[in-house]
Amino acid sequence: MKRISLLVVAIIVFLMSALPALAKETEAPVNQEVANVQAFAKLYGYIRFFHPSDENEKVDWHRFAIHGVSKVRAAKSEKELTATLQELFYPIAPTLSFTKKDKATRLSPPKQARNLTAWLHQGVKMNSPQEQYTSERLQSADTSKIKLQKHVLKPGETVVKRITPDVFAHIPIVLYRNDKGTIGATPESTNGFAKLQQQLSQIDLDKASLNDRNVQLANVVITWNAIQHFYPYFDVVKVDWKRALSDALSQSLNNRTVDQYALTMKRMLAKLQDGHSLVMIPDLEREAAYAPYRVEWIEEQVVVTNAKEETGLKPGDVILTINGKKADSYHKELEMMMQGSEQYKRILASRQFFIGKKGAEAKLTVQRGKNKLDLAIPYADRAVDEFITPDVIEQVEDGIYYVNLKLLTEDMLQKNLAKLEHAKGVIFDLRGYPNPGTIGINILKYLADSPFQTPQFHMPLFVYPDHENVKFNLIQYTHEPAQPKLKGKLAFLTYGGALSQSETIMGIVEHYRLAEIIGQPTAGANGDANLILLPGGSVVGWTGLVTLKQDGSQHHLIGIQPTVPVERTIEEVREGRDIYLEKAIETINVKQNNQ
Q1: Dihedral angle over CA of 24, 30, 31, 36, nearest 10
Q2: Are β-strands 564-565 and 516-519 bridged in parallel, bridged antiparallel, or unpaired?
Q3: How far apart are CA 157 and CA 159, in angstroms?
Q4: Whole-number Å distance between alpha carbons of 16 and 235
């Protein structure tokens, strides 16, 4: 959909780049300490996102997460845990109650009530500067009902959720208000809130460290809840997300390093199969460096596709080992840790393969024909491109032009539009993501005969927890064609690494049949990412809205399908051939001859 920030694009390429060789996952059994934090996590999400008290908006919820996990970890029994939860949450939500029954009741209307308030989340607004997602406490005109766009809630409406095996929390999601604010606070809760705010003020988030176990646990709690209540693809991706919480908390209690924390977060989010999901740790990012070569999984092997001359590598070399590990096994391990569709995981694994740490070397054993070579290649600051391509605009055969949409600007297009207009054929390369300042979707205006629409973007509207009764607002944009229209045969190159804005472009090409699509299925991850800036400096993200194709069918994990599939071979790479480009030229010539 929209272009995500440069930071996020860099993160997606870099994700988990500084993690050490993947260790075997160690899972602790669900013990009392894990159960305590699980219970806190559940209640944290219900109160933070759905209980609309005035106190809610005065709390720093990151500080509260750190404070809360530190308190509940010590509870020795369910009774002690319930008392701790009551102490923590009652000052924020004095209308909250705990019982052993799951039958919901409603708050009785106070005499002084003037109107109602409740939360409406469009996606959800966390603490990043993104503007497309919002979270607001809205008010009604009176006490009869509260309308939140497509939702209508009743006065005093309450949800009941199991927090521990024997305890249910009754959480009002619609509160009564008077002229001073929400109704429900008591002298006891008011005093408790003042005490809580004093305790939270002692937590310096600027000094929060990812080496602190409470910070790690808090980050799991914050992240898990954002996904639990607001990830829009649980109907497509089947995952035991409650088990994911238990696993992540167990691992966090065993973690000793920031590397291990990053791996815990990565494992948890990888379960979502979301190409936009990410975990970025600034300290690890600063240590990252890149070997000046690229690889791809071809014919069940790790094959060099591009390399700087000084590395000693050549396209078509097969990497047998890297830093003492079998290259094919390592690539498969990386795939298992990556996010998104199968095609995108494979691309991300190949991108991860050449990333290491500053000051280190990639020690490779390489097969070149009948010869084996041992090479030590220092990690550097910059990587080479994934594909060896012509210039941004270049005639690749008589009357056929190549155009790199990752780099093409509006100015470049206008200077070359006359020759592209009359070309026999034009090949647009969208194997990747358009750089900032490129023409993007506007290139399609010169290909279309009539107005065209983007894929369907559906913004979820949440007023209930746990994805209950979600409604959506459709967001879809219409673009007008422009002159001159390109008269030749057209083709687009794409592959499994094309996602987000690239898929918006390719989705229009697919739906309106504007050109042949040469290559492989795209990533199947479109829509704006939603980000959380967590204590300790880490950043996590996930896809915040639903993208469907123009006909309303599923896009997530499926992507845009090629009309002319392409699979690279080792021999073609060794010969320096770009089979994508060759197939596009062949396709244009065949169509031209068949006119």
Answers
A1: 120
A2: parallel
A3: 7
A4: 27
Q: CA 45, CA 393: separation in Å to the nearest integer?
A: 51
Confidence band of 164 (pLDDT split at 50, 70, 90): very high
Q: Using CA of residue 185, residue 190, residue 192, residue 198, what is the dihedral sign?
A: positive
Q: Show the tokens assigned to 16.
A: 């988990």
Structure tokens at 207: 């000094």
Work out the burial of residue 151: count CB atoms within 10 Å of its CB; fewer than 13 is exposed, 13-18 middle, 19 or more buried: middle
Q: What are the tens digits of pLDDT across the range 355-398?
A: 999 999 999 999 999 999 999 999 988 889 999 999 999 999 99
Token duo for residue 405? 């949409």
User: What are the start-end ranges of the H helices in 56-154?
Assistant: 61-72, 78-89
**Beta-bridge partner residues of 546:** 458
Distances (CA, A) of 357 to 241, 249, 281, 286: 33, 28, 14, 9
pTM: 0.92
pLDDT band for position 30 (cuts 50, 70, 90)? low
Spatial separation of the C-alpha atoms in residues 425 and 585, rounded to whole Å? 8
Retrieve residue 526's tokens. 């479109």
**Between the CA of residue 488 and those of 259, 412, 519, what are the distances in Å?**
52, 19, 20
Residue (of 588, 586, 581) closest to 387 by Cα position: 581
- The SS3 call for residue 493 is strand
Mean pLDDT rounded to a whole number for the chain: 93
Helix (H, G, I), strand (E, B) or coil at 153: strand
